[in-house]
Amino acid sequence: xxxxxxxxxxFSEGRKPETIGRLVEAVESVxxxxxxxxxxxxxxxxxxITFVADAGAVVEAAVRAVGLAKQLIDLNRHEGQHPRVGAxxxxxxxxxxxxxxxxxxxxxxxxxxxxxxxxxxxxxFYERAALRPDRVNLEDVRRRGFEQLRxxxxxxxxxxxxxxxxxRLHETAGATVVGARPFLVAYNVNLQTGDIxxxxxxxRAVRGRDGGLRYLKALGFELASRGVVQVSMNLxxxxxxxxxxxxxxxxxxxxxxxxxVLASELVGLVPQAALYAAAAHFLKLENYxxxxxxxxxIAAALERKRAGREGKI
Amino acid sequence: xxxxxxxxxxFSEGRKPETIGRLVEAVESVxxxxxxxxxxxxxxxxxxITFVADAGAVVEAAVRAVGLAKQLIDLNRHEGQHPRVGAxxxxxxxxxxxxxxxxxxxxxxxxxxxxxxxxxxxxxFYERAALRPDRVNLEDVRRRGFEQLRxxxxxxxxxxxxxxxxxRLHETAGATVVGARPFLVAYNVNLQTGDIxxxxxxxRAVRGRDGGLRYLKALGFELASRGVVQVSMNLxxxxxxxxxxxxxxxxxxxxxxxxxVLASELVGLVPQAALYAAAAHFLKLENYxxxxxxxxxIAAALERKRAGREGKI
Lengths: 313, 313
What we know:
Helices cover about 35% and strands about 25% of the residues of chain A. Chain A is of the alpha+beta class. In chain A, strand 3 and strand 4 (about 45-55) form a beta hairpin.
């Protein structure tokens, strides 16, 4: 598959494995789509399916899953710790290989149109697919969730009419927030101290919102069972604010606080490019290109030989 | 290709691009074999072709290339800076994916038998394919090269009879040294000093031969055109003595000498695993497995879906 898009639908169901299983099947019923993993949270009553698909198949796979979620999940019966506006709450499209962000914005818009036309679900566009600057951030779109939106959506003064569809939520499926964004890397650094104040201080120092690294979100947490604290981060554009820069920033701040870095951990998936970049950084590699990686060279050589055999130029 | 072997024949011809081109074609004439790159040195009058092939095709590809080299290269007419014993001088087999070192030793032995039976070229086995402990090192097999071997090979007292074939060199093709070894990573670290004595001292401190890191070879060089020096290394088993450990060892020694590390560089190809391991090391990644890499997870998921469709278990 040469044109790969990742899609990460978040559903308002986290307690029924059979529902999640059926949503996975709906995605994989589309040729060219594969599920990489799922995550369910019972407290949040929310689940996430991570799948990739060929650019020509990803919208169909998303629409099938959202359509099934509409049948299986009734938001009026949903309670859980996490703010949400829809049975399918969020639907981001992410470029992985051979597609641009602009391609993914178009896919998001196409998916949004289909959600309204075929399923009667109103749609808000966020992140890079946003049509209005006050809808870029998910939190600004979702605010207090379904119950509040249901009241405000028909009030023109509230300015919460959807980007696609009539200003009325679907009775049971609510609305869906659809967007395009870079690959998200979730990355934590654990510190050798029990003082959560230090973790929060470091998080404030390194995150973009408070003047730190631009594409970095960070919070400080306590890992009570281990007696240590954690700076928990989201790298929202790892090609710009890299994993290794986030690490070095936390390490420097920790040093200033007189605290050791114990370890770091990746949560979920990381693109190989991020690990290659980190290796090249720490090894001070002068000449690194992806072309020096054996496996890349093998793949390129196989493709060259195959293309040569088929007489392509 | 699930069972991949790398093969790196060294030929005693480095000045005629058309010869090297024809040898490349000979390799690629075998289904399942692709050339990753070539390198020719005019001073050494020597070239290296790096190719990979399916385990079931690699010996055939090697034998075809050695057979053509026998026709094209006359060692009696060969002069160059590099010691050699054959038109095809060295023929190592390297496990890359889905094959063990033991598999590659068997492939080396199979190739050696064919070189004698089909081409009349006597063969010495080296590295992991060696049949005698005094033939593990290439230098112990090759010694002063073709001209010296031609005199000594028939003298039982010299102990230089081949492992396969009669104790007589092929008239024009000499002998070939065939073996199996781990993937070799060539890696240099450049230091901010013009003093070659420091580079040599550091090379001695870090290399296995003199008590340093076991699977590391190192030499000190001057990069006169740049006014700096270089510790030039071969990692002969990067999974044991890793790239990042070699880097850290050189950096520590350089610090002791009061010298900065300018940069490092990879020469040729590096397996992705080596870069992942370096990233995991410097980032202190607690939970790194190849499974967290997005591209690995995609490949595994595609394979799972394909296998499921074909009804395999």
